[in-house]
Model the fold of this input.
Amino acid sequence: MIAAMFKESKRSGSAETLIGLGTHVEGKLVSESSIRIEGEYRGDIDCKGDVIIGECGVARSGIIARDLTIAGKVFGDIVAKGRLTITASGQLFGNVLAHTMLIQDGGIYNGNCRMERAVEQRTRHLQDGAEPALQQQQQPQQVKETQAKEKSRQAG
Done:
């Protein structure tokens, strides 16, 4: 009967790793399969599957996952290779790098967000970024000239 339950849960796509309500865990969690947190977790999470922070769940961690759903609280930076969803009860305090992001009405998000689609656009973005880098190299020379003029005014 128990084996049948595990087979059913794999078929239904539910989390294979569960940190249950009332459980406090610290450390680094690396997983090939999905994770659901209903208790409290402190530490980094690197998951090839999906991560779900349940309504009672609290994660004080940096999270890397395919898709991430937050119904509880997360304090830390997020990298979602797919979709980040913050539900109506969800709260996220940290920076985000995600492919897509959905915040339901009532969800709370405080942080900076950067969204990237595909490798092709990253390459184009890097090419566009070459010009500001050139400008940044020129700026220190201008600053030095301004400082030299300021010193000569003070000396004279």
Confidence is low (pLDDT under 50) at residues 1-12, 130-139.
